[in-house]
Amino acid sequence: MKTKRKTKVLVLLLALCLLSGCSLARPEAEEGNGMGQDRMIGVFITREYLDLFDFESYLEDNLNTVMNGGGEVSPGDMEKYGGRLYAEKTDEGYDFGIEGMGAFCVQGEQDGVPYSASYNIGPMSLNLHSTVTDEGTEWDYSATVYVHCGGLEAFYTNPVFQDSEGRVYLTAGMGISSEIVDGSSMSQAMSSEYTISSEGETQTYSMRVEVTFMGAELPKSYRVLHMSKDSELLQTEDYTPETLPEELLPCEGAEYLIIETLNQDNVTRQVVSRGEDSCQIFAPTEMEDIIAQRWTDVLW
């Protein structure tokens, strides 16, 4: 048992070394036409550490170095032992075969024209911003995961890559943990930069992803008040977070809606006027302790 514990610790330390500073840029290895290199395209978040490191092969190839201290194994040399988990391409997108949440942007070409396709897996609130200039392309993902309050939570942010053949895979990432209370948050960020040279021109492709894990409470219930233009109450509807529909139909004569959110100790309200077509609510998900922030359409 003692040896097993040491092995696990060393594997984790090696994974941390590979992602030191959460920067995945390797400028010395990225020169080329951009088609023969693997690019970071996003992240996939898991609740458990993905033990993909091939420790046996690492020891077999580097035993003398490790035991005798006779040299240094560079991060570049260690990468080949890191292990990959490839995603299966499906009609809906990509499937890694494990539970988690992901956000990534796949690059491709169709009839010689490059394109990008963004994919979002699981209950994440996501913003994607891209900047294209003559010098290159910058991608910036900002994601929020809402976590139910009440205990110590741990998450692992695993970088997602696309290889030269278009295949999508992930490698084991770093973990973060904290006691989750309402309004608290913890964040992880990753960035990667690639230099592409083609026909005498150089462009830079960069990707940055920041994930914030935010403490939140799932409401006890919702109440929808249908109001006339004279602020007369026309109709009241009560829902639980599980039964609130994805579409609300105001009653005849309603000029605006008041959405009351009933929490443990307080009530918050949002007003939806004519011309506004949605309201934002919290809803449960199939993932343990994860809350979805979603939009409910209002059909005037």
Overview of the structural elements:
With 300 residues, this protein is mostly beta strands. The protein has 2 domains: 22-52 and 82-216, no CATH class; 221-298. Helices cover 12% and strands 51% of the residues. It has helices spanning 2-18, 55-68, 75-78, and strands at residues 39-46, 85-86, 88-89, 94-95, 101-110, 113-121, 125-133, 136-148, 151-162, 168-170, 174-180, 185-198, 201-216, 221-227, 233-239, 247-248, 256-262, 267-273, 278-284, 290-298. Strands 1, 2, 5, 6, 9, 10 and 11 form a 7-stranded antiparallel β-sheet that branches. Strands 7, 8, 12, 13, 16, 19 and 20 form a 7-stranded mixed β-sheet that branches. It has a 4-stranded antiparallel β-sheet with strand order 15-14-17-18, with no helix packed on it. A hairpin with a 5-residue loop joins strand 9 and strand 10. The protein is globular, with a radius of gyration of 24 Å. The N and C termini lie far apart (65 Å). Residues 1-35 have low confidence and may be disordered.
Tell me the layout of helices and strands.
Layout (H helix, E strand, L loop, with lengths): L1 H17 L20 E8 L8 H14 L6 H4 L6 E2 L1 E2 L4 E2 L5 E10 L2 E9 L3 E9 L2 E13 L2 E12 L5 E3 L3 E7 L4 E14 L2 E16 L4 E7 L5 E7 L7 E2 L7 E7 L4 E7 L4 E7 L5 E9 L2
Parallel strand pairs: 8-13, 16-20
Antiparallel strand pairs: 1-5, 1-9, 2-10, 3-4, 5-6, 7-8, 8-20, 9-10, 9-11, 12-13, 14-15, 14-17, 17-18, 19-20
